[in-house]
Amino acid sequence: MAEQDTFLYALSSNNAWAGYKSHQNPEFFPKLASGQSPKILWLGCSDSRCPETTILGMQPGDVFVHRNIANIVSPTDINTSAVIEFAVVYLKVKHVVLCGHTGCGGAAAALSNQRVGGVLDTWITPLKAIRNANRQELDAIRDDKARAVRIAELNVQKGIEVLMANVTIQEAVEERGLDVHGVLFDIGTGRIRDLGFGTRKQGAGGASADEVVRGRHATLVFRGGNASMKITR
Ligand SMILES: [Zn+2]
């Protein structure tokens, strides 16, 4: 498909989608226009295969989002910090989810000894630092894909450390039980795996620790280190 055709297709697809949603539920857009109260702040990768609302089976209004290349969370990044501040202080989200993913180009670039070019090498500097700090473990993994998954996990772990050191997040955790989760999205299966970093360590779950987040059309259940999703009406 030519590029212009792709754009025209996207516009007509939007038109069809809006028509379908309105037909299915005439209150959907008027309700959406009246304001937002998302329960989840999602920090993820810009990768086109990781559209948070879609892969969570949720709907517009359910997830507040910040995405960048390789889901890097740096304490000095004012863009990420502003999103966190607004979501946590003003929208009062209940969960912060930091999501890495399999097959991340940023992870592969950080593992390579080649320069990417332009500003991109600067951007992935934190990932390069993770690679250097864990060189022995990473180099011992023979499979390229598995090595990229491992650095993606380490990147989420590092990002969670940065999030847990963020004063805005610390206050919300203490004052109203904000939860912070580190997860990994497997593009090859569509499943999200809880890595057990954040406010709930892996294995600390159990039935009593179930956390249910209800979106407009789906319910997300965090249970003993796993996230699962149920479609609801
Ligand atoms: Zn990525």
From TrEMBL:
InterPro entries attached to this UniProt entry: Carbonic_anhydrase, Carbonic_anhydrase_CS, Carbonic_anhydrase_sf
Reaction(s) catalysed (UniProt annotation): hydrogencarbonate + H(+) = CO2 + H2O
> Single GO molecular-function term?
carbonate dehydratase activity
What cofactor does this chain's UniProt record say it requires?
Answer: Zn(2+)
Q: Is Nucleotide-binding a UniProt keyword of this protein?
A: no
Q: Which CDD domains match?
A: beta_CA_cladeA
Q: Name one GO biological process term.
A: carbon utilization
Describe cofactor binding as the record notes it. Binds 1 zinc ion per subunit.
- EC number(s)? 4.2.1.1
Which SUPFAM superfamilies does this UniProt record tie to the protein?
beta-carbonic anhydrase, cab
The GO cellular component terms are: cytoplasm
User: Which UniProt keywords are listed?
Assistant: Lyase, Metal-binding, Zinc
The reply on keyword Glycosyltransferase is: no
* Residues holding Zn(2+): 45, 47, 101, 104
Q: Which domain of life is it from?
A: Eukaryota
The similarity annotation says: Belongs to the beta-class carbonic anhydrase family.
Briefly state the protein's biological role. Answer: Reversible hydration of carbon dioxide.
Protein's name in the database: Carbonic anhydrase
Q: Which organism is it from?
A: Coniochaeta ligniaria NRRL 30616
Q: Please name the taxonomic classification of the source.
A: Eukaryota, Fungi, Dikarya, Ascomycota, Pezizomycotina
